């Protein structure tokens, strides 16, 4: 009987890097695992993952374990990503309708506006809350939240999460600023209460939801404009993509050829990438290659873990919302999807784009030798540019293959999806790309 010692790492979302979070993570993996180290830290002691090991008595057991690893990675995001709540404060019937259609049905009214609340309750399933003094009551006159208006640092310091009679706290910053938002998160950290802040724009709401990374438990969006509802919902849709597993396909390289000069794009992100992570890029939207970041150490150039040398200007790159855009369209402030070898995705903000003329190399690949569709990508012909290699069971994981050493028969990772696109959105249409 063959015994395998299998060592692997499960990535940890930053929001759960705590003793309690680590303990809960351990419950997600198979019972026969032995934890070797509580944390795996990168530079700057930024803890990124947990290392586990197990003894496997068969190749089949190893394959089952690999399946558990993928599921555990997905569950860490699913179980630990804090649920963010949205309440609405409006007198616009159109805003109410748009919010309910998007799943938000808790509305705040002043106590004098009960007639409006009753009217809306007759046409939509809503949960009305009424402001009376410094409290919020539901339609059954049960207190559900405290309500505080804050206009000075002194009032902010006096906020205490000690009121046991209400599970929720609503704070209205009359003089809105970013730092008070962070102070609220810090003041209520560890509290069992759900803390809401009143936001007058979707961008304010985003700051409250992301302040000090953890963010508040919810926001009260006080608006009279339907566009604000649509914008905030779009933000939540993009946010909820984080942690989803994309289905990546193992492909076989069928052609590697020098292609001359072209304008290539370096994408510098506002986030650091780890080995095995990169951007989904390709000449055809129906098949995007996972292009590795420049995070790996090299004899030729210093590590740049924020950069992906992504390819020429015509290439597609995956962005949130299941969309694509051209590399030439990327600019500072735009969001892209960062994906790792297991298909785990997250969003990152583009900080800078560099377009320079460089020698290119053409790479073509197929799903297998019998597959008719060919996928292609052009990349700068440089040792620091590579495609992500698939994970291979008990063998050491090689995260990237430099394009300078890529050869026919090598295996790389692809994201296969629908082919036709209009302004980056997938459509049902006949299309031929070659």
Word description of this protein:
The chain has helices spanning 19-26, 59-80, 93-101, 114-121, 153-157, 178-187, 202-210, 226-241, and strands at residues 4-11, 34-41, 47-56, 85-89, 106-110, 127-132, 135-138, 143-150, 168-173, 194-199, 218-222, 249-269, 278-284, 287-292, 307-312, 316-319, 323-326, 335-339, 345-366, 375-380, 386-388, 400-402, 411-416, 421-422, 425-426. The protein is of the alpha+beta class and 434 residues long.
Rg result: 25 Å
User: What's the story with the biggest beta sheet?
Assistant: 8 strands, mixed, barrel
The number of helical elements comes to 8
Strand content: 35-45%
Which blocks of ≥5 consecutive residues have pLDDT under 50? 1-81
Distance between the termini: 50 Å
Report the structural category. alpha+beta
* Average residue-wise pLDDT: 78
Per-chain topology:
Blueprint (H helix, E strand, L loop, with lengths): L3 E8 L7 H8 L7 E8 L5 E10 L2 H22 L4 E5 L3 H9 L4 E5 L3 H8 L5 E6 L2 E4 L4 E8 L2 H5 L10 E6 L4 H10 L6 E6 L2 H9 L7 E5 L3 H16 L7 E21 L8 E7 L2 E6 L14 E6 L3 E4 L3 E4 L8 E5 L5 E22 L8 E6 L5 E3 L11 E3 L8 E6 L4 E2 L2 E2 L8
Parallel strand pairs: 4-5, 4-11, 5-6, 8-9, 9-10, 10-11
Antiparallel strand pairs: 1-3, 2-3, 6-7, 7-8, 12-15, 12-19, 12-23, 13-14, 13-16, 13-18, 14-23, 16-17, 18-19, 19-20, 21-22, 24-25
Helix pairs in contact: 7-8
């Amino acid at each position: 009987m063959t015994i395998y010692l299998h060592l692997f790492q499960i990535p940890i979302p930053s929001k759960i890097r705590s003793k309690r979070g680590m303990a809960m993570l351990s419950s997600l993996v198979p019972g026969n695992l032995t934890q070797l180290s509580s944390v795996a830290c990168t530079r700057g002691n930024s803890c990124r993952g947990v290392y586990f090991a197990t003894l496997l008595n068969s190749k089949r057991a190893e394959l089952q374990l690999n399946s558990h690893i993928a599921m555990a990675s997905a569950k860490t995001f699913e179980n630990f990503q804090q649920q963010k709540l949205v309440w609405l404060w409006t007198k616009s019937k159109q805003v109410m309708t748009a919010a309910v259609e998007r799943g938000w049905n808790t509305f705040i009214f002043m106590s004098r506006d009960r007639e409006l609340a009753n009217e809306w309750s007759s046409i939509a399933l809503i949960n009305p809350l009424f402001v009376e003094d410094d409290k919020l009551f539901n339609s059954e006159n049960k207190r559900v939240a405290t309500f505080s208006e804050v206009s000075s640092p002194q009032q902010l310091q006096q906020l205490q999460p000690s009121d046991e009679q209400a599970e929720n706290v609503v704070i209205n910053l009359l003089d809105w600023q970013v730092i008070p938002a962070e102070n609220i998160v810090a003041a209520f950290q560890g509290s069992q209460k759900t803390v809401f802040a009143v936001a007058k724009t979707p961008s304010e709401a985003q700051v409250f939801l992301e302040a000090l990374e953890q963010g508040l438990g919810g926001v009260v969006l006080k608006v009279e404009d339907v566009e604000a509802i649509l914008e905030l919902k779009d933000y939540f849709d993009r946010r909820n993509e984080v942690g989803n597993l994309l289905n990546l396909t193992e492909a076989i390289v069928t052609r590697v050829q020098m292609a001359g000069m072209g304008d290539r794009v370096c994408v510098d992100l506002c986030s650091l990438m780890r080995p095995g992570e990169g951007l989904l890029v390709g000449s055809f939207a129906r098949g995007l290659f996972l292009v590795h970041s420049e995070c790996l150490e090299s004899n030729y150039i210093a590590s740049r873990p924020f950069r992906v040398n992504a390819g020429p200007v015509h290439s597609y790159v995956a962005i949130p919302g299941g969309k694509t855009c051209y590399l030439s369209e990327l600019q500072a402030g735009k969001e892209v999807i960062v994906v790792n070898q297991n298909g785990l995705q997250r969003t990152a903000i583009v900080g800078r784009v560099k377009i320079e003329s460089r020698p290119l190399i053409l790479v073509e690949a197929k799903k297998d030798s019998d597959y008719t569709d060919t996928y292609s990508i052009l990349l700068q012909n440089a040792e620091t540019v590579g495609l992500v290699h698939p994970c291979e069971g008990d063998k050491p994981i090689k995260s990237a293959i430099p394009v300078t050493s890529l050869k026919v028969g090598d295996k790389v990772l692809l994201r296969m999806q629908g082919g036709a696109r209009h302004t980056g959105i997938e459509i049902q249409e006949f299309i031929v790309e070659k």
